[in-house]
Structures are given as structure tokens and as C-alpha cells.
Amino acid sequence: MFVTKFKTFSFLFLLLPSAAQCFTLYANVSIQFDTDEVKVFTLDDGSNACANAGFTEDDLETYVKAAVKVWNKIPTSSLKLEAAGKFDPGNTDFTTGELCLWDSVYPPASCASATKVPQVSHIYVGCSTNANDNENFPSNDVYSTNILASTSINNISGRNIIGSVILLNAADPAVAIAALNDEEIIATIAHEMGHAIGLGHSEKSYALMHASLIGKKNNLSEDDVQGVTYLYPVKLDGCGMLATIQDINSNNDSQGPGSFFFNMILGFLICVVLKLRPKFLA
User: Fold this and answer.
1) Are 56 and 48 a contacting pair, CB within 8 Å?
2) List of residues 6+ apart from 137 with CB closer than 8 A
3) Pure H helices in the chain
4) Whole-prediction pTM value?
């Protein structure tokens, strides 16, 4: 996915890596959901839109559940994604429509297609059969089967994300996603979820939020963990872990895991000492 301006999509390419800082945000500004509990729906309009991708909407629901678990296992993040099951919109606007860019009004004038992906609350994941140029999966102004998926944060209030839409590329029998195994598809969806919650790309090749899927596993790196923790930190009661996170605009390497866990342990010990202090004094 290339992240350029606030109004742009994010695209995940199969073979085209893109450099980004460690870690970055979706729009190079801090935007995040205004709630720590975000539902993730699987789109199923009855049109078998995922057929070209090589799986069914039932399979997609299983992939979504697995991708949700990837982001829910971070102890330093307050974000909790909930796999909310299937959603039938009653039409094919999600599967055939243009994934419009967010703007101060929705849809913006730049979203010229007659059929537009609806504005949403929470996160919706589905397959798209839209192969029109310059819309959902363009590369050099033409449709590309190598683009695995597109994500648009299409509902924002101030700097709060209200809703995001993730569409997998199922617009052609030759789509690249059809060649992926289950683990790679889950990694693809989890990567897109990272964008949907406000993360950009990581320059770390081993990070889930790196732009290239080559060799990707659905495991989070320290870079991924720091990014989501920055956007959705655990709210402490004044006696919690001591930890630092580097400036998002810095190219310096982030702290190693040893420093992170040392700070966690140190914070815990300080907390214990403070709580037991009256006993010591007695």
C-alpha cells in the first residue's frame, strides 16, 4: 500500500516493496478510532464476490476472525477488535462500487463512479469485483491483478476514525491473491486492518506493516506493536509500566525488546514498592 496524502488509498502489492519510516501513521498524522472496541464485519451480499480469489465468504469470515486475533494479543494496546460476523448490505455497492477517498464531504467530487462503496462505521472486509481503471486497484492508471487489497478510511470526524473499508482484489480470474495460502491471506487482511485502524507502512522488512508480502507471516514485530500502542495506549491508573516509544518521524532504530521488557519489569517493581510502602515503614 502506498500512503501519500490524507485522502489516498493504501495498496498492498505482492512484489513491489515501498520504503516507509519506522513506524508510520496512515496519513502521517495521528488518527484513530474514538473507541477502543471496534467491530469488524465480513461483507456477504450473496454475489459470491470472492470466487476469483479462490475462497468463499465463509472462508473470508474465518480469515477475518484470525486476523482480528493478530491485533488483539498486544498487552500494551487498549484496542480490542471484535469479529462481528457477516453483514449483508442488501445490494452490491460494496463489491462493485468505487472505494471512494475520504474528504470533508462523502463521497467527494473525485469519486465519479455511479456506484460508490458506502460510508461505514467500524470496519468492513469484503471482496471487490471492480476492475475499472483508476478506482479500486490501479497501478500506473490501469487495473492490476498484482494488487492484493485496498483500504480506505472513508468516515472520519476530526482526527477520529469512524469507519474503514477493506476490499480484497477479486476482480479477475488471474488475481494474485488466489495464489496465496491461508496464512498469507490472513497476513494480508491483518495488514489491511493495520491501515484501517490508522497505521501506515513500516520500513522494517519483517514487520507485518511492511509494504511487501514476500515471506510474510501473520505475526507482529516490535515495530507493529509500538505503532498500535502509540495510537491505542493502555490507560493506566498512575501505577503502570514505564516504557518509551520513539518519535514517528525518526529514522532511528527502535528500542530492542530487552529494553522494552526491562522497563515493564521496572515499572511493575516500582508499582509494588509504592503499594507496599506503608508496610515497610511499619
Assistant:
1) yes
2) 11, 128, 130, 131, 143, 144, 147, 150, 169, 171
3) 57-72, 93-96, 182-196, 222-231, 257-281
4) 0.78
Specify the pLDDT at position 2.
Answer: 38
Q: Is 152 helix (H, G, I), strand (E, B) or coil?
A: strand
Amino acid at 250: S
Go through the domains of the chain in sequence order and give each one's CATH number. Answer: 10-231 (3.40.390.10), 236-282 (no CATH)
d(CA 247, CA 226): 11
- For the chain, how are helix, strand and coil distributed in percent, rounded to 5? 25, 20, 50
Contact 107, 125 (CB under 8 A): no
The tens digit of pLDDT for each residue in 194-212 reads 999 999 999 888 899 998 8
Look at strands 37-43 and 147-157 and give their pairing: unpaired
Residue 238 makes CB contacts below 8 A (sequence gap 6+) with none
One-letter identity of residue 134: N
At 14, the pLDDT band (50, 70, 90 cuts) reads very low
Spatial distance between the Cα atoms of 28 and 37, rounded to a whole number of angstroms: 23
Measured in degrees and rounded to the nearest 5, phi and psi for residue 160 equal -105, 125
> In this predicted model, which residue has the larger pLDDT, 185 or 280?
185
Q: Name which residue leads in pLDDT, 235 or 3.
A: 235
Outline where DSSP puts E strands in the chain: 10-13, 32-33, 37-43, 80-87, 122-128, 138-139, 142-143, 147-157, 160-169
- 108, 76 Cβ separation under 8 angstroms: no
